[in-house]
């Protein structure tokens, strides 16, 4: 793993610490990987399945559909376990709204990118 990747992953974990996640689950690792991919190359967002889920699935020897399902469930559980104030403050929501998986990944990736002043 490159030094830059380690710095980015550290910044991702700092961002994810705002929320209540089960950090020991494989889904949490998938989430870190997904955010890392987006931080390093935002153009990957054009095809989430091919550019995000497939590489993660390949790395962890599973199917892209399983990665997507695991991430969706992880976000659902986080939403249930995290204070609504934290969610609303982080995402700047004006009403009771659950972030979609893609919105969550993009928002955290943007905050990591901004905090690290990463230029590629």
- Uncertain runs are none
What's the alpha carbon Rg, rounded to whole Å?
Answer: 14 Å
- How many strands? 0
| Amino- and carboxy-terminal Cα gap | 17 Å
H-E order: HHHHHH
* Helix residue percentage: 55-70%
Tell me the major beta sheet.
none
What percentage of the residues does DSSP assign to strands (E)? under 5%
Average of per-residue pLDDT values: 91
- Determine the number of helices (DSSP H or I, runs of at least 4 residues): 6
Overall structural class, as computed from helix and strand content, comes to mainly alpha
Report the principal-axis shape. Answer: globular
Question: What are the salient characteristics of this protein?
Answer:
mainly alpha, 120 residues
What can you see in these coordinates?
With 120 residues, the chain is an all-alpha fold. Helix content is 69%, strand content 0%. The chain is built from 6 helices and no strands.
How do the strands and helices of this protein lay out in sequence?
Layout: H1 3-16, H2 26-40, H3 48-59, H4 64-81, H5 84-91, H6 101-116
Helix pairs in contact: 1-2, 1-6, 2-3, 2-4, 2-6, 3-4
Give a short synopsis of this structure.
The protein is mainly α and 120 residues long. It has helices at 3-16, 26-40, 48-59, 64-81, 84-91, 101-116.
């Amino acid at each position: 793993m490159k030094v830059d990747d380690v710095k980015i992953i550290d910044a991702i974990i700092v961002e994810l610490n705002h929320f209540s996640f089960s950090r020991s689950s494989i889904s949490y690792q998938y989430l870190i990987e997904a955010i890392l991919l987006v931080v390093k190359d935002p153009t990957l967002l054009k095809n989430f399945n091919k550019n995000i889920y497939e590489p993660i699935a390949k790395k962890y020897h599973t199917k892209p559909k399983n990665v997507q399902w695991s991430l969706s469930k992880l976000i659902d559980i986080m939403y249930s376990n995290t204070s609504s104030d934290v969610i609303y403050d982080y995402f700047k929501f004006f009403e009771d709204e659950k972030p979609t998986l893609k919105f969550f990944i993009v928002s955290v990736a943007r905050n990591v990118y901004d905090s690290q002043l990463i230029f590629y």
